[in-house]
Amino acid sequence: MLQCDEPDDFVIATGTTRSVADLCEAAFACIGRDWRDHVRTDPAFIRPADVELLVGDASKARRELGWEPEICFENLISEMVEARLAALDA
Fold first, then answer.
1. Is the N or the C terminus of the chain less surrounded, counting Cβ atoms within 10 Å?
2. pTM score, two decimals?
3. Which of 59, 78, 79 is nearest to 69 (CA)?
4. Is the Cβ–Cβ distance between 25 and 35 less than 8 Å?
């Protein structure tokens, strides 16, 4: 994005859909726990399905910047969890 001559907006996404449950499952798997034993869902905060599918379209970033995702979802979540655990130990 910094290589652009003019400022512009870009979507940075993998083009795959993941749920909050997917994120919780991946994060808790890093510490060997089942997320369902530690996360409560309050139905009051579940919004109605206003769209069936939300997927980020990074085709403009791919086309204009040559950008491609370099890390899969599970590895990204793992890196985030490991960084947070390291910060807690510091």
1. C
2. 0.77
3. 59
4. yes
